[in-house]
């Protein structure tokens, strides 16, 4: 099992205690109080070359526009002269840079017409997504640990718990500090799906004045075993007896409501 890089014999509250007064979550992220779909920042590219295949257009558009910022997906819609491309960016400023730089732009020998796309970034069968944007449980770097970078210096354990607990059960939060100032954090969830949901929703969003940088945290060696699917009649003593054959059991933390335990 993976864990954050905090030591297991240190409680999360002690390992990340801060003297700063936590700001209410509503002040930190006012636009995310409701679980609304993530806003998209896309451009529509028209007047595409008729003879080019959809695959070559998707690849070409990705490489043409990734210079302006992080591209989350490229889609091709329509056919023949009516065919157009949609390029979605992670940040609004990247969308604006692409729009400003695209006046009179030539693409595969054609002068393309680029306008802002007003609409959601829905999944399409005819799309290209960079590997880093395919955030799911099968991602090659997927772990149960969420990396949270670019923290504000006043960020506390309670701030992070209040913001990220809606994506799943939190096992541990470890804030890494330099000279007492928070720099980044490792937040461990009960499952990988929760990490994926957090990254999709919160990467690039503001925490105070800073944009959060989220990703999968590296799996770290741990002396804890995480268990799920336990019945309510299982006892701490039973788990201790069962696992002591592999070595001394120091502690068992059992959440009977969720059927989860750490040994």
From TrEMBL:
Keywords: RNA-binding. PANTHER family: RNA RECOGNITION MOTIF-CONTAINING. PROSITE patterns: RRM. The lineage of its organism: Eukaryota, Metazoa, Chordata, Craniata, Vertebrata. Residues 41-114, 144-219 form the RRM domain. GO terms for molecular function: RNA binding. Residues 1-37 are annotated as: Disordered. It comes from the Eukaryota. InterPro entries: Nucleotide-bd_a/b_plait_sf, RBD_domain_sf, RRM_dom, SHARP_RRM2, SHARP_RRM3. This is Msx2-interacting protein. Gene3D superfamilies: 3.30.70.330.
